[in-house]
Amino acid sequence: MKCATAATLVLLALAASARDEKSCTVHDSEGTYYDLSGLTAKKDYSFTTFEGREYYINVCKSVQTETWALEDSGEVGGFTRKDRGDFSIGKVNTTIDVRDGHPLLIMKDGSNCIAGGDLKASTAIRFICDTSVTSTGQPQLLAELPPQDTTACAFFIEWRTSYACPTSEGVGFFGGIGFIILSIIALIVAWALFTVLWNRFMLGLRGADQLPTIPFDSVPNVDLSAVKGSVRKFTSRMGLNMGRWGSRNSFQGFSGDGITRSGFSRLPSSHEEAAHMLGEDEDEEDIESPIQIVRPPGMDSEGNVRL
Ligand SMILES: *[C@@H]1O[C@H](CO)[C@@H](O)[C@H](O)[C@H]1NC(C)=O
């Protein structure tokens, strides 16, 4: 049952890693990955309107310039200085969208618009991949609406930067190779589990006979101890109790009918040694073993006593 639990955990981990979007990064529908977190700055960026007003903004972080007379100053994503107090053009947002292949950042819920009701200022920034831009690039205002600085309440910004280019995810454990390894382990666990259940309930096998055997005789001179060692190391790092599977499989190989034996580089040279090896393996057996083998020490799967 531990194996079933382990398999479930692995599958859940795989599913979870596919879902979570890190702050300020995004995958588009085709899986292309964008990471704008490199644009988050200690010193605010600024842009200037056609009439000459200066605005300060940051990316995925509140503005670092000190604001004046603004509520929730820690959540302001962009603002301009006005005589009667600062004017916010939107709240910080760490969720990025992708539209037409360009990352898009929307900041809503800024200050109340001068011109109307409960409408609040908002800003849309379209990031455009441009590898010719060195450093971070600069935001550039495309349009503000209404079009006068005094009443402007919606801001459209274009930002050319290499940070907007598709990139690859950092090789976190769940990225890249880790994902492949986990998938393979999940498949092996599922296969082993299925084999045991099949052998037990469909073929009516008992004891070691119901364990899956790997046809190592088709791969001559496999040094199984090295494989076992690395599998154990990996699984124990993963916190999965699968080392037992390794030892069970090899146990079955050792005690098999001589055909499976040929695959092992380290063969028992005598019956004593064989019995010793079997004995060692018996010692490893404990309550935690996912499947308890009921078999007298020294007896192999054929029922032959080797002592
Ligand atoms: C943050 O951005 C997302 C995606 O564009 C948007 O749905 C959400 O309303 C934004 N939130 C704020 C507070 O701006």
Keywords:
307 residues, alpha+beta, Cation-dependent Mannose-6-phosphate Receptor, Chain A, 2 domains, five-stranded mixed beta sheet, four-stranded antiparallel beta sheet, 5 helices, binds 2-acetamido-2-deoxy-beta-D-glucopyranose, receptor, membrane, transport, signal
Please summarize the sheet with the most strands: 5 strands, mixed
At the fourth level of CATH, the homologous superfamily of the largest domain is: Mannose-6-phosphate receptor binding domain
- Mean pLDDT level: 77
CATH C-level category of the largest domain: Mainly Beta
Bound molecules: 2-acetamido-2-deoxy-beta-D-glucopyranose
Alpha carbon gyration radius: 32 Å
| Structural class by secondary-structure content | alpha+beta
What is the CATH architecture annotation of the largest domain? Distorted Sandwich
Distance between the amino and carboxyl termini: 33 Å
Number of helices in the DSSP assignment: 5
Protein name: Mannose-6-phosphate receptor binding domain-containing protein
Organism: Thelephora terrestris
InterPro entries: CIMR_rpt, Man6P_isomerase_rcpt-bd_dom_sf, MRH_dom
Region (Disordered): 272-307
What features would you describe in this structure?
By secondary structure, the chain is an alpha+beta fold. The protein folds into 2 domains: 2-9 and 171-284, no CATH class; 33-164, Mannose-6-phosphate receptor binding domain (Cation-dependent Mannose-6-phosphate Receptor, Chain A), CATH 2.70.130.10. Helices cover 28% and strands 18% of the residues. It is built from 5 helices and 11 strands; from the N terminus they run H-E-E-E-E-E-E-E-E-E-E-E-H-H-H-H. The strands form 3 sheets. Strands 7-8-9-11-10 form a 5-stranded mixed beta sheet, with no helix packed on it. Helix 1 (2-19) runs antiparallel to helix 2. The longest helix is centred in the middle third of the chain and has 26 residues, at 177-202. The protein is elongated and about 95 Å long. It starts with a helix and ends in a 23-residue tail after the last helix. It binds 2-acetamido-2-deoxy-beta-D-glucopyranose. 2-acetamido-2-deoxy-beta-D-glucopyranose (NAG) binds next to strand 8.
